[in-house]
Design goal:
Chains A, B: This is S-formylglutathione hydrolase. Two copies of one chain form a homodimer. Chain A is an alpha/beta fold and 277 residues long. The first copy, chain A, is built from ten helices and nine strands. In chain A, strands 1-2-3-5-4-6 form a six-stranded mixed beta sheet, with helices on both faces. In chain A, strands 7-8-9 form a three-stranded parallel beta sheet, sandwiched between helices.
Chain lengths: 277, 277
């Protein structure tokens, strides 16, 4: 693994690494912000999963999270959103909602995707191991968050790995891939026609049977173009209600799906995670 | 003039406008952040001038200034850095330090640049008039700041227009285009061989004879790759010292030329301007 960038930021260090991924069978990059407190010892860590079309850089350059991470002494890890590279297949029509930039944080079982598209294993297993080797983080104090497709990733990964995270949050998450066009397309291609396999990556389905109940926060803008057709936070609120899951869903008036929305509330999310880390 | 984007951000509005520029003879875009306070009446305004290669978007998406602008109730205007469009000439070799993205905030007198490259008049006259028409800003309370080439622009424009600004600041400014390769190339091409004409756009030369003395703040990273050859803040400090100009120059250890540096200290700069607005 090679460090390919380092920039001082809010008294800490914004780092970027490149490495060969065994589970994705390609070269990958990811970013880590280490707060000033990391110079004195291990710090808790927040994983951030980005949305469709993003790389590891969108969150790092646009969210303004470093200020809050420095205040609270939390490291922030931002992976890419899919495998990358010359032999990694993409959507045949080059669509932006599937293939490159759209790994959906699952392990594909269908060809041609099954060779590289294992973002679930990458985020759950390979990446934390690389981070633990390179950075002073305390893996016993881990939280997870994300945006849109990455909000889906954050909730499904938290729900599927009890004992692993202290808290979970999301901005504008895809709440049920079983119930929206983005999910139908992606999971149908990656996992095939068996919708039971999709349910294992559906936050609403997972929440209904969750034994561990984590502190959970969701922010959703009510001017988000994708709200009605793709995101459907009411389904997550219903699942949380029926399961007694402690989800706080905040509808934010006038906000859209952009990083201007994330920047406005990322401070709240980092403070929320800090309270549980 | 047409509003081409609007995003809610920190309770205010991030706006983007497109318009035909009379002084640049081309179509231009610029961005304005209006804080929540602008819904109740006119607010003071900070002009931000960006550096080489930037458009109006770099600062808007990367600096995280909206949080502080919302806290202090200040509008922030970010113009582009050069004229744009099909018939606007660029560096013959396509270099990134001259031509498109590198207007240097002067009025070119030499062909082929003289037809479009009038960024001084654009920032000093045309843009404030457009902003005043479209946005609730109080032009009597105006400050100016910028980065690198835009720090040069902020200081030269403030020094050349006494009575116009309440305060001036910069990140990593080009302090003396008379004394660095970027300045030699740009002003030589835009203004010709007469170095007296360059001195009218040299912060150090202007500061030595300034009658109005504005509160002035400069942050400079000591790990900035351009520090020794291009930026030379010691020349500005010497000019300020000899002129009795109230410049605070802060060398920031470990910081480079990037927006990670700007993001780390833009809160200080907006608080500095707010104290004088």
């Amino acid at each position: 693994m090679e460090k390919i960038a380092e920039n001082r930021c809010f008294g800490g260090r914004q780092l970027r690494y490149q490495h060969r991924s065994a589970v994705l069978d390609c070269d990958m990059t990811f970013s880590v912000y280490l707060p000033p407190q990391a110079a004195q010892g291990k710090v808790p860590v927040l994983y951030w999963l980005s949305g469709l079309t993003c790389t590891d850089e969108n969150f790092v350059t646009k969210a303004g999270a470093q200020r809050y991470a420095a205040e609270h002494g939390i490291a922030v890890v931002a992976p890419d959103t899919s495998p990358r590279g010359g032999d990694v297949p993409d959507d045949p029509q080059g669509a932006w909602d599937f293939g490159l930039g759209a790994g959906f944080y699952v392990n594909a079982t269908e060809d041609p995707w099954a060779k590289h598209y294992h973002m679930y294993d990458y985020v759950v297993s390979e990446l934390p191991s690389l981070v633990a080797d390179a950075c002073p983080v305390d893996a016993s104090r881990t939280a997870i968050s994300g945006h849109s497709m990455g909000g889906h990733g954050a909730f499904t990964i938290a729900l599927k790995n009890p004992g692993r995270f202290r808290s979970v949050s999301a901005f504008s998450p895809i709440c049920s891939p079983l119930a929206c066009p983005w999910g139908e397309k992606a999971l149908g291609n990656y996992l095939g026609d068996d919708r039971d396999a999709w349910a294992a990556h559906d936050s609403c389905a997972l929440m209904r049977t969750a034994e561990e109940k984590l502190p959970a926060l969701v922010d959703q803008g009510d001017a988000d173009n994708f709200l009605q057709e793709q995101l459907k936070p009411q389904l997550l609120a219903q699942a949380a209600s029926s399961a007694g899951y402690p989800l706080e869903l905040r509808m934010q008036p006038g906000y859209d799906h952009s990083y201007f929305f994330i920047a406005s509330f990322i401070g709240d999310h980092i403070a929320f995670h800090a309270a549980h880390l």
